[in-house]
Each structure stands twice: as structure tokens, then as C-alpha cells.
Write a structure and sequence with these properties.
The chain is 61% helix and 9% strand. The chain is mainly alpha-helical. It has a domain of 107 residues. Strands 1-2-3 form a 3-stranded antiparallel beta sheet. The radius of gyration is 26 Å and the shape is elongated.
């Protein structure tokens, strides 16, 4: 379970959320009042989905390329090419995620693994795990923002009643 804590800044009314990523206390800061954050999150998520959707077709092309070639060298080449596709996906997904949140958020999230394997690269299942954990929190933050904005809008509009806006009276026509 990811823990979140709202932080208040003294210099502005900006809402900043601290989202804890692991049991070590590593966290990422989320600018809840920055519209671009939610845009980056959705675009990044879709980008990763598109990358993942391309993988099966690319792997199938490689399998066709090596069909009927069962010698050791061909098998090794096929495995290397397929592995390269998976590595490329993981590297791109990590870049996208770090672009959404901040540098090294994946290293923070998987800190326990990185401490044992410093050059660890999360695979597609790890990326899915990350999104499954953070997406509900991001949705909650976004929904709270929308509710807060709606309340603020209603409060501002409540100041202005229809009777406050009477039609101007014409002068001098008797």
C-alpha cells in the first residue's frame, strides 16, 4: 500500500502530495495543483501501453525470420533479438516513468532489488506492478483536486445572486 501525505507550503497555496514508494521511506513529490502532471501521467501511461502492444508483433516477426533454423547459432541470435525488444521496452518505460514523476522513481520503488542488483532493469511485469500501485493514488489525488475546484467555483459563484444584477434603468422617459 502506498502512503500519501499532503504537505502545505508557506509561500503559496500549491498543494503538494508526498507519496511514499516503499518500506524504506523513499517517496516522490506530486504537484497536485499542476495541470501538466496529470497530463504527463496519462500520456506516459498510454505511451507505455503502446510500447507494450507492439511487442508481440515484433517478436512474431523475429520468430518467422528464424523459422526452420534450428542450429545453435540461429537460436542464440533469435533469443538475443527477442531479448533486445524486451530490454528496449523496459528502458523506454523507465524513461517515461521518470519523466512523469522525477528521476530515479523506479529505483526508489524497487530499492530493495537495486540494493542487491545495482544494474537491475524492471521487466514489463514490474512496470505493470508499479502502475497498479500508483494509479489508484493518482486517481484519488486527481478526484480530490476536481472536487476542491468544484467547491471553490460554487463558493465564488454563490457571491453573485441574480438580484445583484438588475437591468439598468433608463433615465428621463416620462
Amino acid at each position: 500500500m502506498i502512503n500519501i501525505e499532503q504537505l502545505k507550503t508557506e509561500s503559496s497555496s500549491t498543494n503538494i502530495i508526498q507519496m511514499e514508494l516503499n518500506d524504506f521511506g523513499d517517496y516522490v513529490m506530486i504537484p497536485a495543483d499542476e495541470p501538466m502532471f496529470f497530463d504527463r501521467f496519462v500520456k506516459g501511461y498510454k505511451s507505455i501501453i503502446n510500447l507494450a502492444d507492439d511487442i508481440p508483433a515484433r517478436i512474431e516477426e523475429i520468430k518467422k525470420k528464424y523459422k526452420g533454423k534450428e542450429d545453435f547459432s540461429s537460436e542464440l541470435d533469435k533469443i538475443t533479438e527477442i531479448s533486445s525488444i524486451n530490454v528496449n521496452f523496459s528502458e523506454e518505460a523507465v524513461k517515461v516513468i521518470d519523466g512523469i514523476f522525477a528521476d530515479d522513481v523506479i529505483k526508489k520503488y524497487f530499492r530493495d532489488v537495486y540494493e542487491v542488483i545495482p544494474n537491475f532493469l524492471p521487466d514489463a511485469d514490474c512496470i505493470i506492478d508499479f502502475f497498479e500501485k500508483v494509479t489508484p493514488t493518482i486517481e484519488k489525488i486527481f478526484n480530490q483536486k476536481m472536487e476542491r475546484q468544484e467547491k471553490q467555483r460554487k463558493a465564488r459563484m454563490a457571491k453573485y445572486q441574480p438580484q445583484d444584477h438588475k437591468k439598468p434603468q433608463r433615465k428621463g422617459t416620462k
